[in-house]
Amino acid sequence: MAIPVFPAVFPVALALIGAMIPDMDHEVKSGSVSTIFLLGLVIFLVFYILGLPYLAGIALMDLALIFYLSGHRGFTHSLIGALILSACLTVFVLASFFLLRSLGLDGRASLVVILTVLGFIILNRLLILPFVLVTLLGVFLTDFPVMNLYTIMGPLLLGFISHDMLDSFTPSGVRFMRPLSGRTFRRGFGVLMLVLWAILAVYSLSGV
Q1: Which residue positions in the chain have pLDDT lower than 50?
Q2: pTM over 0.90
Q3: CA dist 165 to 63, 67, 84, 153, 189, Å?
Q4: Alpha-carbon distance 96 to 110, whole Å?
């Protein structure tokens, strides 16, 4: 779904990360959530002591706390949750990128490091190796992406919404507007999201 709108490897990889994140609120992911929090805490403490930007660590800890407090198919499956989590991940990606660049790491290598870290803490174990290999090749063999809010938060948010869209086709549906509303959205919502995505994709392709 991200390819017609964000035709570059890095944002498409972020969209995959975004699509996997909502289910981090499931109890089977508790170990991964603990890892995210501990990693964020270590980054925060080390960077704070060294006088380096520590926003990346705070962003990871915020993510972990949201996953921990949200019940399955709860806040993380809502529009507000998607916006907040996408914003936290965007802060992590941008802060990490500019920090790695300031430390002398090449721009493409910085992207690979960021995607590898996100892959290890978020993706299912069977997906990590192919994800890292494909993104490694893609990042080094394609044009360098523009690093801004649109190309980072945009695909992350699209990934979140695609997850909720597919969940709306299941019998339990999704409560997409919580905590503002407890209404359950089902198949009609998924069809509407597909139509809106198709319009966005056509508009994006027509502007190329």
Answers
A1: none
A2: no
A3: 22, 20, 18, 18, 7
A4: 8
Do residues 10 and 136 lie in contact, with contact meaning Cβ atoms separated by under 8 Å? no
| 60-98 as b/e: b if 16+ CB within 10 A | bbbbbebbeebeebbbbbbbebbebbbbbbbbbbbbbbe
Note the pLDDT tens digit of each residue in 108-121.
999 999 999 998 88
3-state secondary structure of 57: helix
Contacting residues for 179 by C-beta, under 8 A, at least 6 apart: 75, 78, 80
In angstroms, what CA-CA distances link 83 with 22, 65, 147, 199, 201?
Answer: 12, 15, 19, 21, 20
3-state helix, strand, coil in the chain (%, to 5): 75, 0, 25
Residue with tokens 């975004």: 18
Q: Is the peptide bond before 145 cis (omega within 30 degrees of 0)?
A: no
Name the residue with tokens 């290598």: 109
Q: Which two tokens stand for residue 65?
A: 């706390």
